[in-house]
């Protein structure tokens, strides 16, 4: 869980950074979108292959992450089939308690996100219609879409906050009270960075700061 989780968080940071190129204008963003689907690692691998290898790697990481979650969930149920007598929430944060169902909601909205951008753009509209820049402007000019993303990002960042903390602990970094303070601070900082970094662009589109 820890390693696949860290890979997915790495992807989120890169994706967030890429989205910020919307602030550089249509040409820069469309060039970036084209580059992702073009000659990365060419001539080591044929042109256009990188994106598909990368997608296969991401799907594998997501499936392994879900597989580990289901396994842990099953083990937890097997260890305590009747549930706890008293459901006291001992020093557990809200994020920690919502990891399982939060993860399910997050994944459901990820499917919506992929349908909205990757599938609609490449399979339905075809590459010759709207450019990636125009497509993003179109989608985020609608207020409820920005609200939906703001809510989705809350589930993503809560999951990341607790997930990062857990991953650090699993990998052996939770060694002292001081280390816990540092780890918690890092987990919060990265979750907040992701929230602000992802949401600033849709908000800017909605208010017409980029158009
Ligand atoms: C405000 C937040 C976000 C915006 C504006 C955004 C925007 C986009 C856009 C425009 C694409 C299409 C790229 C293309 O095919 O040319 C895309 C693809 C994608 N996004 Fe996001 N995204 C956001 C948040 C997220 C989050 C939180 C996740 C994961 C939980 C995510 C996962 C993905 C994935 C997996 C792809 C597919 C990449 C591919 O086609 O190989 N995105 N996103």
> Bound compounds, please?
protoporphyrin IX containing FE
List low-pLDDT spans: none
Just name the CATH architecture: Up-down Bundle
Question: What radius of gyration results from the CA coordinates?
Answer: 20 Å
At CATH level 3, the topology is 3 helical TM bundles of succinate and fumarate reductases
Helix residue percentage: over 70%
| Major sheet summary line | none
- Which CATH class? Mainly Alpha
Count of DSSP E strands?
0
Number of helices: 8
End-to-end C-alpha gap: 40 Å
**Hey, roughly how much beta strand do the residues contain?**
under 5%
Count up the domains.
1
CATH superfamily: Fumarate reductase/succinate dehydrogenase, transmembrane subunit
**How would you classify the helix and strand content by structural class?**
mainly alpha
Mean pLDDT: 90
Summarize the helix and strand pattern as letters. Answer: HHHHHHHH
Molecular shape: globular
Structure overview:
The protein has eight helices and no strands. It has 211 residues and is an all-alpha fold. It has a single domain, classed as Up-down Bundle (3 helical TM bundles of succinate and fumarate reductases). The model has no long low-confidence stretch (mean pLDDT 90). The structure holds protoporphyrin IX containing FE. Protoporphyrin IX containing FE binds next to α1, α3, α5, α6 and α7.
